[in-house]
Amino acid sequence: VAMETVSLEHQIQSVQRHIAFLKKEQMELLHDLHLEILRLQKHCSELTHDLEIKELEARQQDVLDRELEEKCRVMEARLQQKEKDNLELRKELQHKETLVAALRSSLRSKERRFLEELKRRSHRVTILDTELQKQTEAAAYLS
């Protein structure tokens, strides 16, 4: 019976050592798991922060894109108006160039007629001057 008691005490001590070892292993495992949970929580927080920043940047970019699109629409409308104004000015310029060409033609025609009239009058003056000179000579001869 004493032998059984000693053997039983050895078994109890062995079981207690195993329990202590298992408790120690469990505590180390729990500690490591706790550290891993903390690391994962920190990583998750960083990823969440990065995601929030990217979402904010995306929203800001969307706002900028919409503002740029609106500015483009305004500028395109202005460009179309300027092109329309330009077309009207070109038509007006073409019309005025046509008028200028007609006026130049009319002016050349009038200038030609004036020069012809001037030649005729100059010729007439020469004839009258010659006739006057003859009459002056005749009057001088007669006096």
Task: Give an account of the 3D structure.
The protein has 143 residues and is mostly helical. It has one domain. It has one helix at 2-142. InterPro entries: CCDC74A/CCDC74B/CCDC92, CCDC92/74_N. Residues 65-99 form a coiled coil. Keywords: Coiled coil.
Secondary structure elements and pairings:
Elements: H1 2-142
Tell me the strand percentage band: under 5%
Main sheet: strands, sense, barrel: none
Task: Provide the residue-averaged pLDDT.
Answer: 96
Helix content: over 70%
Structural class: mainly alpha
Helix count?
Answer: 1
Q: How many domains make up the coordinates?
A: 1
Number of strands: 0
Q: Unreliable segments (pLDDT under 50, ≥5 consecutive)?
A: none
Could you tell me the radius of gyration in angstroms? 59 Å
**Cα distance, first to last residue?**
201 Å
Order of helices and strands: H
Tertiary shape: rod-shaped
What distinguishing features does this structure have?
143 residues; mainly alpha; 0% strand; rod-shaped; CCDC74A/CCDC74B/CCDC92; CCD92 protein; coiled coil
Short structural description:
Residues 9-62 form the CCDC92/74 N-terminal domain. Keywords: Coiled coil. The protein is mainly alpha-helical.
